[in-house]
Amino acid sequence: QILFYLLTYTYSTQFRLHVLKSSSFLQLRRAGGWSPMVTDRDPWLQVDLRDQMKVTAVATQGCSISSDWVSRYLLLYSDTGQVWKQYRQEDGGGTFVGNVNSDDVIPNKLSHSMRTRFLRFVPVDWNPSNWLGLRVEVYGCSYKSDVADFDGRSSLLYRFNQKSMSTVKDVITLRFKSRQAEGVLLHGEGQRGDYITLELHRGKLAFYLNLGEFFLFSSSCVAVTVGSLLDDQHWHSVIIERFNKQVNLTVDSHTQHFQTQGEGDSLEVDYELSFGGIPLPGKPGTFLRKNFHGCMENLYYNGINIIDLAKRRKPQIYSVGKVTFSCSQPQLVACTFLSSSSSFLSLPVASAIMGGFSIRFQFRTWNPDGLLLSTQLSPEHQRLELLISNSRLLLTLHNFGQQLEASAGHRVNDGLWHSVSLDTRSLQITLTLDNEAASTIEQWEQLEARGSFYFGGCPPTGFQTPTLAFQGCIRLIAINSQPVNLNHIQQGLLGNYNELQFDTCNIRDRCLPNLCEHGGRCWQSWTSFSCDCSGTGYSGATCHKSIYESSCEAYKLIGSSSGFYSIDPDGSGPLGPALVYCNMTEERVWTVLTHNITAPVRVQGSSLQKPHIMMLNYSASAKQLRTIITGSEQCQQEVVYNCRKSRLFNTKDGRPLSWWVDQGGERRSYWGGFLPGVQQCSCSLEENCIDMNYFCNCDADIDTWANDTGVLSYKDHLPMSHIVIGDTNRTGSEAIYRIGPLRCYGDKSIWNAASFYQESSSLLFPTLRAELAFDISFYFKTTANSGVFLEIMGHKDFIRVELSSPSVVTFSFDVGNGPAVLSVKSHLPLNDRQWHYVRAERNVKEASLQVNQLPLRFLDAPADGHRHLRLSGQLFVGGTASQQRGFLGCIRTLTFNGVTFDLEERAKMVPGVSSGCPGYCSSSSSLCHNSGKCIEKSSGYTCDCSQSAFGGPTCKEVSFDRESSMTFTFQEPFSVMQNRSSQASSARRESISRAREDVAFTFITSQSPALLLTVNTFSQQYVAVILTHNGSLQIWYHLQTHRTPDVFSPILSSLADGQIHRIRIHREGKDLYVQIDQDIHKKYTLSSDAELILIRSLTLGKVISKSYHPEVLLAGSKGFIGCLSSVQFNNVAPLKAALLNRGSSLVTIRGPLMQSNCGALADSITSKNLRGNTHPQPSQAKDGKESNDADSVVTAVVFIAVCILAVVTRRLYLRQAHRSNHSIKEKEHPHNVETGNRTELHLQNSVRDNMKEYYI
């Protein structure tokens, strides 16, 4: 219903107050309206609803018979009219959309209702051609409440009818408001150790609950915390719901779900529950906490209205101290400093009786730096500054060119209120923060302030300081013990100000809820937040993107060899990475997941009554295992069971004597090699059991050793989680078993493809949930000039990814802030019938678009815009809902938030779309090796080796030299900051240092010492990576020529061991991250965050320059003997560029060149190590040989068929083949170093078409 109101206020420069006894002329569809004077400063319209109401919606209209309207506005609310708070929708947006003319009514429904008496409409934008005008209506209903006021020394006790109250279900609801950051709201405890406590702590709600555990309130008790900034003098709602151990704790709109501690299911509280505090601080086992100081309303405990009982003086309620039933808390009015560059408040110097001056005030902020107070002093040429520096308070006296300093506090930018006192009324300056000891600066004469006191910043005409202005809130200002009335400042009666917001502390906790995904740590300033993703396995603005590949198959496609790898089977999904072994020595790529029981286990003395039970713990979680198994083509697990008088099934009633349990907890009694549900072993299937009367060798129950070995291969039951042995308790009875690792091969998602033949055809999938973050990735190939890859719509929101022209991919979306568009343009056409990679991501911080290895494009999200993307329609793949601009071509590996869509299965049911994608280059087999590019031809394929360090028909031949050095000279002064597009770099990362390097390379050597890589600049800076005399790795950073270099040794063991090693180095300012292979991750702090200025060159191998440290020179003089490959420096592949640009003036190669088998060396070493670890059985080796022979025959037949087909069709396709060859030649020849420089490489993301260059 419409809520009627009587009083309307507006403030202007002269602080004019209009009291309107009738508001009818402000209501919608009536003549009139509110329009302030053009000279009014920061006008607003205030509405008094006469009583507290529940408001659910507002509506606006411009002034009648005019061109005055408001197009955007803020909505503030207050229940006292003194302290205000800005209303924000659920997605964080604080600005309401208003009118575009003076006639239309624009309603805005509130995402969550608010209970208030006063409303303020604050115009933000209005008719640019005229002026602002407003008519409003407020919608809602009346709101009744029971209120209790606690003064910090009072409480209400609810006493039970019996000695104790035991409950398995509790529901407690209340609303509270407070200006204190500490205080107990609820407490109860029992003698057996149960307790329940709800308290304010540092402005957050902490909830303690224990059921039957006897560590009453010990240090091991951990609180569940919800909410933030709850000491803002505004109402907050709390709901506690408990059933047995399961608890939901909700504060406002934020909910925590958790399971409580303790062994019981019921909460047993003795005698009473106390609300508002703990009345007896000396009571044994209670929290010695500060009591609550504030108001509560509508306090219900399991349906009982506690405040109503207290008001009616019922005997169940006992009141301690003074508890009143109206909320009369005094309001502390604050003002908000909005801008870090132009906000300030100037106040005149008040006279002091004893000379000098004193200042007191309170502040709260998130920013680690900012100017709080400054003033000029007498005698002249002196100045006093109080500022926040590196999260501490710093007081500086500028005295005739000298600086005297005093500091106080630690992390004063924690968002809490802090009290500051500054006193110069003696021969020292005293700084006091909160309750800490004072810091002082001694002085020789009495200091007097002259001019004004400047809070938060300085006016443009005043003295300037390089410090940022303060962004935050200030209240309770007192100068020489005289309180400052902020209303007088707002009215223009006192001082001056700029970029201030009065009557409100507009602070927000941007880390609540934490929008950093996958355990990323949230850091915030006044205007934004950032995510620390270190150690999470994810990257990006909100830690959304996994830094690992999704499978071993994916690692092989980027050129990796056998070894331990972290794989992320659901990509950006919630599961996280798992450590696996990738066996790439066979044609199939095997993913091996080990468990904790690797050695054979001997079992004796077990029976069905007391069986032997062994649980297997894998290197991945149950959900990760299920995802890996589901995404694999085939999985298996070997079970070796040796027995002597130990049966498996040989019982009269058919009950199994031993069994195993699958990952779902189901008992399984079939053994390796047989179908599920049949109690048999592999010997029965092969018809070679010892006794053919039984289905297992062990069931023959003989006194000699027998064996039942087989392979479990039914994917839905894998892996084995438990094994149970129950027949080894007879004389001479025993068993020995060994459970092999889980082994899977094939990635069903990589080559899951669909071909689109009609523009009107598309694949439809259910709607997607992508409110706060999503990423979409896929591969495509086409000959069409344009087409929509995918689209999904909501009421207004949408996502669309399309090929908008032959060389441009466009990603567009709308989350309620208007359409946003990102485009990436390729210098080569993308409709060339080759596979191209696309990845689009959107989160609350930014959106990005990646196409192949082209530079990423970024777009920042609006600072105060809508966050939630609301989609309701189906996902259209290969087209749109309008069946226009459909895509013609192939799409494969379509993934959304880590979930891969089964395009092949869906394509079987849609006309105009077929499963798979025709063509030689579509298969998962590697036709072109070492990152060679497979080029489709009309009758076969060819390998483009221009982007590989290898040559020949299939990019297998290589020509490098031993004991050579290669120097890559940068063509122009090179800024290492170019890790992102130039459009996005400088403006969007204010908090990130410009100094940044990404270095990665792979090497094999048996030599030490050795120099692997050096980078030097024209300013005598350098970075060096060496192996010392004992083979350990050292990283040298010499960033400041007047200081000694920083030296780090991430690993002390020798890397000159003839094994292949992968090194990754990443620097951000002073932070240095080092990764060695897959298992060593180190972080170091440099002594300087200086940037590498004007990089001269990068050298691999021997160096002769004298500008290095002697230890580096020693390693450099020995050079490097071995294999270097996949060298990456920022967005440059120097070794690759050198090999593709022989004769270039930018590349210097010393020593002769000769052919090398470096790639085979790396593979053979890895294969040798793997064989040494796995001990394959002869039968397996034989099978592998037979498989290889069969593959050779198939390959030969296919090759002959292709040759015959090529001869027959040569004339028909001569012209087309000529054009195709000409295009290929164009790709092969015009290679230059600049192209190499522009290829973007990312340390955290393995390159899809990885370069695998080898250097000997």
From TrEMBL:
Keyword field contains rRNA processing: no
Pfam families in UniProt: EGF, F5_F8_type_C, Laminin_G_2
Domain (Fibrinogen C-terminal) ranges: 543-595
Membrane topology: Single-pass type I membrane protein
Species in which this protein is naturally found: Dicentrarchus labrax
Gene Ontology, cellular component aspect: membrane
Domain EGF-like, first and last residues per copy: 507-544, 918-956
CDD domains membership: EGF_CA, FA58C, LamG
Laminin G domain residues: 147-327, 334-505, 752-917, 973-1158
Subcellular location(s) of the protein: Membrane
Domain of life where this protein originates: Eukaryota
Disulphide linkage map: C890-C917
SUPFAM superfamilies assigned: Concanavalin A-like lectins/glucanases, EGF/Laminin, Fibrinogen C-terminal domain-like, Galactose-binding domain-like
Keyword vocabulary terms for this entry: Disulfide bond, EGF-like domain, Membrane, Repeat, Signal, Transmembrane, Transmembrane helix
Protein name: Contactin associated protein-like 5a
InterPro entries per record: ConA-like_dom_sf (IPR013320), EGF (IPR000742), FA58C (IPR000421), Fibrinogen-like_C (IPR036056), Fibrinogen_a/b/g_C_dom (IPR002181), Galactose-bd-like_sf (IPR008979), Laminin_G (IPR001791), Neurexin-related_CASP (IPR050372)
